[in-house]
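Lab notes, practical 5.
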Amino acid sequence: MYNSEQYKRQIMDDLAQGDTETMEEVSTNERQYENFDDFAQRSSHAERRQLFGRSLHPDRIPPSQMEPELQKAIAQIKPNERDDVARAFFKHLKERGLSDRQLEQQLALSTHHPNKMSADDVSKLATFVYHNHPDIFQEVMAEQPGIIKFLSNPLVAAVLGIAAAKWLGSQRK
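Output from the prediction step:
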């Protein structure tokens, strides 16, 4: 029996090797990725957006499953990456008319300055966006894919694995 970390690692290893079942056709360039880090570095924003757009949504992964995962994942990323995630969320939310100061008050954040935010602050912001603006959440994850590798819940890994299998599976044809 796998624990969640072994399960996630196995999914990513299988995907990197092309061991997938093709569930639907998706056009993409011929590429093979060694692991998730390689995928995050070499894939295009559009490829990541397509993959995460279908799988990272409250309809697919319940908030009760995603919230604790986000907290753990954000706590594990580097502080500069955490700043980038917070900055990206604020940028996209500002385009929707939500100011960083307004969000600071509404979400009880310790600050609205991304470079001074704690992991807890960024987790609150990410959770808010996941619930209320899933399209922004998906966009930021495509821009900052490093967080995804720290998601360990088997349900989250399975949904991402299925989406990745669909996307990467078409490369083997």
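Observations recorded by the TA: The chain has a mean pLDDT of 77. The chain is about 65% helix and 0% strand.
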